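Checklist before submission:
- one chain only
- standard amino acids only
- sequence pasted in full

Submission:
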Amino acid sequence: MTAPGFVWRHARLLIVGICLLVSACAASPDSALARVAPDSFAPLVKKVLPAVVNIAVTETLTGNDFLADLPPELRGTPFERQFRERFRNRREQMMGAGSGFIIDPSGIIVTNNHVVGHAEKIVVSLSDGTELPARVIGVDELTDIAVIKVISNRSLPYVVWGDSRQVEVGDWILACGNPFGLGGSVTAGIVSARGRDIGAGPFDDFLQLDAPINPGNSGGPTFNLQGEVVAINTAIVSPTGGSVGIGFAIPSEIVQKIVADLRNKGHIDRGWLGVSVQDVPGDAGGVAIASIERNGPAAKSGVRPGDMVTAVNGEKVDSARGLIRAVAAVPPGGSVHLSVRRAGREVDIPVTVGQRPNTTDG
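Returned file contents:
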């Protein structure tokens, strides 16, 4: 892993996976006063900061890891061989830093998968300076969510979930985390947009934040003004690697369910059709089946390339992402009814979904 996170390149900007602590101040729609910025965020900070933790990870990189990152400018040159010879047997300890937050006094902590997913050693630092070793309970690569646990001889401070569905663009938020390894930092801002797809995966549905978040903030919480976690800070867009006021956080409506499943089972089960899908331009509606995996669930049920899926279990779908999510929500072995438009006719096709691999479309 690259400390403190991983990097995506998108539109010539770096979308940096970082330990982010975003300020979430989205309030209940029933309380207009809760949407007004307070004279000071200090009372809110005192309430939530004790449950925010710093995460230090150690990972051993081998020569193969270095060779996988061979600089493009060396490929095909006489220096490529020298580079490979030099790093072939090299091993090195890499340190990374991130953030997380305690959701249960027994020591259950939520963070990003890219913070701890490949770690050999994890050490959690509490707000009072206490350092505790942690172990991974479960991770989900597709949503970049992880759950870890520490053992403490006392009950730990914790925070509760808020409802991200109630968060509106323009709402105040508070972000907490461990930027650049400094620890215990908070920033305030607003929600800039909802439903952002940044190309990180098939389940992208980020809140966009303008609260400054930086490398090291990944896995930190975004709070509303009531001190409830409404998102987990995950990435930024930046030409420099530092904050330019465009950050992204996973909404609690997604995180909360994933965390519950990871705590119960240690992994996530998702439904899968075995198809490649694509959006249809214009107003035709529906999602086109581009190709079908031989012997996959869709193929066995009679779905054909060129079919236009318009609904799943009676619920309309109008995007490839929507179809993937609808099917993924069905436990493997369960069934779905696909409403399909084929050659001008409407067809209902029942499909028994399979177990979704990590690298497929739908």
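Reviewer check: Confidence is low (pLDDT under 50) at residues 1-33.
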